[in-house]
Amino acid sequence: MKAGHTLVLVTRNCNKAEAALGFKAQLIECDLSTTPLSAENFKGIDVIINLAGESIDGRWTLSKKNKILSSRILSVRNLLANCPASVRTIVTASAQGIYGDRGDEQLDESSTLGEGFLADVCKAWESEFSNCRQRLVILRLGMVISDQGGALKKLISLFKKNLGAVLGKGNQWISYISLNDLTQIFIEALQNEKYNGIINAVTNNPLTNKEFTKILCKKLDVWCLPPVPSIVLRIALGEMSQLVLCSLKLAPSKLNELGYKFQDTDFEAALCRGIRQ
Questions:
Q1: I need a labelling partner for 182 at 20 to 30 A (CA). Which of 117, 136, 272, 274 fits?
Q2: How many CB atoms are located within 10 Å of the residue 1 CB?
C-alpha cells in the first residue's frame, strides 16, 4: 500500500476480515476450498500472493490431515481456474517441511525432497502450479519469528508459564525467518523479475533446538525445564510431533545469489523485532 498498490483480499468471511485488518483493502468473499474465483474477480489484478490452507496446528487425525492437504490443493485449483493471462506473477507460500527430516545435512533449493506427511503435502501443493503461465515464485518458509501467530506464538505462551524445555535431544536444526524479512522477500518477489522458481525463505543462520530454547528463555526471562524426551512428545502430540523433532538445516542460496540483504541476521535480532514486550 505504501508503494501505491491496491490490495484485494479473498476471504471466507468479509465481516471478520474487515474487523481484523489494520489497513484498507477490497474484499472478495469466497471459500477457495469449494468455489473458484470468477473471471470478473481478476479485473485489474496483475499479481497474486497465495497463502491459503488449513492450519497444521492441532492433533493430526485422519480428518485433520485430509483438510490440511485438500485445502491447499483445492484452493490452488480454484484460484487458477479462471486466472487470466493478464495476471503476470504468482507468489505462493510453501514450507521447509518439503525436505523431510534431514539431520545435519545442509539443504538448498537443489536438494532432493524428503518423505513424510508434510513433505507429501508440500509436494502436492507445489505441483498444482506446474502448468501456470505466469512468473511463479514458490517460497519455502522456515519458522516465522513473530508473536502474531504460528508456532512461535504458541511456544511463547508455554515458555511464559515456565514450561519451556529442550525438545528431544535438542540437536535438531531450526531454520527461521523474521516476519520483517519475510514481508520484504514477498515484496521483492512481486516486483523483481529475477525472483523465479523455488526460493528457501530462511536466514543464513539456522540454530539447534537447544540454542533456540536457551535464547528464548533468556529473552522472556523464564526458567528452562529439563529436556522432554522424544517418546513423550510422540505420545502427547502423535504424528504432529515431527514438527518439533525433525531437523532442517536450510540455506537461502537463491536469496544470496539475488543479493538479498537480511535485516535480521541472527535469531536474537529476529526475536527483538518479533516479540512485543
A1: 117
A2: 9
